[in-house]
């Protein structure tokens, strides 16, 4: 799976050099953006939601540590990239995956990337387990079952009965709710497949999960689509037709 990275450094040559090294020696990393200062970094951070930050420490106006302190939460791993070695202890306090000194050593860069990817996967597994436990706990109580959805700004506990459908786009999933709200979660749709199918959701397409009670009809003109009660049309893939027929008893 591709790992998205944001590079933050106040010197453009450093950004260009790091981007070139990652492209050549760490092809599993996709640089989703670069930034020359903290404010620019925040804009990219919230729009792209990267998995890893390569962060310079000494920057004008707001250094790397101040930048991290200004964020409400960390949904990414941090690799500090700096020309100075006196910040190691401070970097450890921010739970940095690694601390790389300029000029960059290729072996150290590759090792840091691998550690970041492993740490990211571990956190994702823990989050999925947490989500499942929240769902199971809710199901054991008198309340309707809920699922924990971690967005860029908060973790929302949503009633499963209020989810109309889920739509995937690469490593992101958009949850469409019955009140018209949408929630964008930085997880692929398959991460929710097993949990939601237990509650009547149907995988009608590689990129779509639908909640059975919200299905209004099966349209067969100009292709196969499910018409949902909110007016949306969801495609039905050829490989999912037979399973869908069984689920809908048609």
TrEMBL record:
Classification via Pfam families: LytTR (PF04397), Response_reg (PF00072)
Molecular functions (GO terms): DNA binding; phosphorelay response regulator activity
Modified residues (4-aspartylphosphate): 56
Matching InterPro entries: CheY-like_superfamily (IPR011006), LytR-like (IPR046947), LytTR_DNA-bd_dom (IPR007492), Sig_transdc_resp-reg_receiver (IPR001789)
Annotated HTH LytTR-type domain residues: 147-250
Protein's UniProt keywords contain Acetylation: no
Keywords (A to Z) from UniProt: Phosphoprotein
Keyword Phosphoprotein tagged: yes
Domain Response regulatory: start-end pairs: 4-117
UniProt cross-references to SUPFAM superfamilies, sorted A to Z: CheY-like
PANTHER family recorded: STAGE 0 SPORULATION PROTEIN A HOMOLOG, TRANSCRIPTIONAL REGULATOR-RELATED
Protein name as it appears in the record: Two component transcriptional regulator, LytTR family
Native source organism of the sequence: Spirosoma endophyticum
């Amino acid at each position: 799976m591709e790992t998205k990275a944001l590079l933050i450094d106040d010197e453009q040559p450093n950004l260009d050099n790091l981007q070139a090294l990652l492209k050549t020696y760490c092809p599993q990393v996709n640089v989703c953006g670069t930034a020359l200062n903290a404010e620019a970094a925040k804009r990219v951070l919230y729009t792209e939601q990267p998995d890893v930050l390569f962060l310079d420490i000494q920057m004008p106006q707001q250094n790397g540590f101040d930048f991290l302190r200004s964020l409400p939460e960390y949904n990414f791993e941090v690799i500090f990239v700096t020309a100075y070695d006196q910040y190691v202890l401070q970097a450890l306090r921010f739970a940095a995956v690694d601390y790389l000194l300029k000029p960059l050593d290729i072996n150290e860069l590759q090792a840091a990337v691998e550690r970041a990817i492993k740490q990211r996967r571990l956190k994702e597994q823990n989050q999925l387990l947490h989500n499942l436990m929240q769902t199971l706990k809710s199901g054991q109580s008198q309340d309707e079952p809920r699922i924990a959805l971690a967005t860029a700004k908060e973790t929302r506990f949503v009633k499963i009965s209020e989810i109309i459908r889920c739509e995937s786009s690469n490593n992101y999933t958009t949850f469409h709710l019955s009140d018209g709200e949408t929630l964008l979660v930085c997880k692929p749709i398959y991460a929710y497949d097993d949990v939601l199918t237990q509650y009547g959701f149907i995988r009608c397409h590689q990129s779509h999960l639908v909640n059975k009670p919200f299905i209004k009809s099966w349209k067969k003109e100009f292709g196969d689509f499910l018409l949902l009660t909110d007016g949306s049309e969801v495609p039905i893939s050829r490989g999912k037709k037979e399973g869908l027929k069984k689920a809908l008893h048609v």
